[in-house]
Amino acid sequence: MPLLEIANETVFGNRLDAWFSTALFFIISAAVIIAIRHLALARLKSLSKRTSNKLDDAIVAGAERVGWPFYVFVSLAASATYVGLGGFGRRVIDLSTLAAVLFYAVRFLQFVIEGLVERYAASSQKNGKAQDPTILYFFAKLGGYLLWLVAALVLVDNAGYDITALIAGLGVAGIAIALGLQNILSDIFSSLSIYFDKPFKVGDFIILGTDMGVVKRIGIKTTRLQALQGEEIVISNRELTESRIHNFGKMSQRRVEFRFNITYETPLGKIKKVNELVKRSIHRVEGARLDRVHFKKFGEYSLDFEAVYYFPNANYNAYMDAQQTINYSLIELFSKEGIEFAYPLQRIMLSQEKEHGILISEGKRPR
């Protein structure tokens, strides 16, 4: 058979000479695209090393993961377009190219998103921010699944199928699932609110109603506290976002108010020294800042004083150590000055009178 007749043979709707031209242009375009890929990656790597931004590093790493099928099908599609192929063969090439592009585009976006999440989590731990990245990992995975769903719908639509009914069915199914999982979805979105609003973080001591403890983990559905007694408290995220929370982890300094009493028998001169003695005791605690000291009132059995100071540490044990130091100092200084602490005391005065042979006892108010 003459070569001219062979070249005029039709295969998949195109002449053989068109297929030969496509193959030749494919080889040239593939070589050009691969060369451009290597040069572009080398340039991007050089630029990313000069910046501290993590986004460009994730993009470069994602681009390196794009495999050879992507470049093969892109080169094939470019060749078919240049030569002008048509028919069934062109349709197969276009759909195969679209599938390869969608596949690697979704993989690239997934890798970039997950890489950014991992780098953010590592950076948070390095900087001492005890933030649990579980929520971000979850939504990164969820975003990846949604990307695959969109890619599949785009491919089916380009294959010539009507996806309107499919999208409507997915919408109805989504509504039904959302209604059935209403409480779970509420907890999931509450966890997202907690993550970005940051009312508390892992390691904070919080009080929620009658529950209190240190936040150990912020999950997708629940948050877990370690109570002071040692047990674990599990609270739904929805309940946390709807309740009033006392977060002692946000406290930069602690305001401390304490009271003490001295006896009524204390002389006025020594009573006036009490304020100075309290100031000296508070100043013995490093970082403590006195706010006020006052002789507050006359109590039932004592003279009542009230003192307020600020302690620059949110840790409860550190606060108790500071208060203990102040108490020891007050005992020491009051002992030197001869000032006595008061305690509940009832004193009864008795008098004896004989009237018609009856013994009468008369009581006075306690002091």
From TrEMBL:
Q: Which Gene3D superfamilies match?
A: 1.10.287.1260, 2.30.30.60, 3.30.70.100
A GO BP term here is: transmembrane transport
Keywords per UniProt: Cell membrane, Membrane, Transmembrane, Transmembrane helix
The transmembrane segments are 18-40, 70-89, 95-113, 134-155, 161-181
Which Gene Ontology cellular component annotation is one that this UniProt entry carries? plasma membrane
Q: Where in the cell is it found?
A: Cell membrane
Domain Mechanosensitive ion channel MscS C-terminal, by residue range, is 256-341
Bilayer disposition of the protein: Multi-pass membrane protein
Q: Where is it chiefly localized? A: membrane
Residue ranges of domain Mechanosensitive ion channel transmembrane helices 2/3 in the record: 145-182
The Mechanosensitive ion channel MscS domain sits at 183-248
What family does this belong to? Belongs to the MscS (TC 1.A.23) family.
Which PANTHER family has this protein been placed in?
INNER MEMBRANE PROTEIN, YNAI-RELATED MECHANOSENSITIVE ION CHANNEL
Name listed for the protein in its UniProt record: Mechanosensitive ion channel
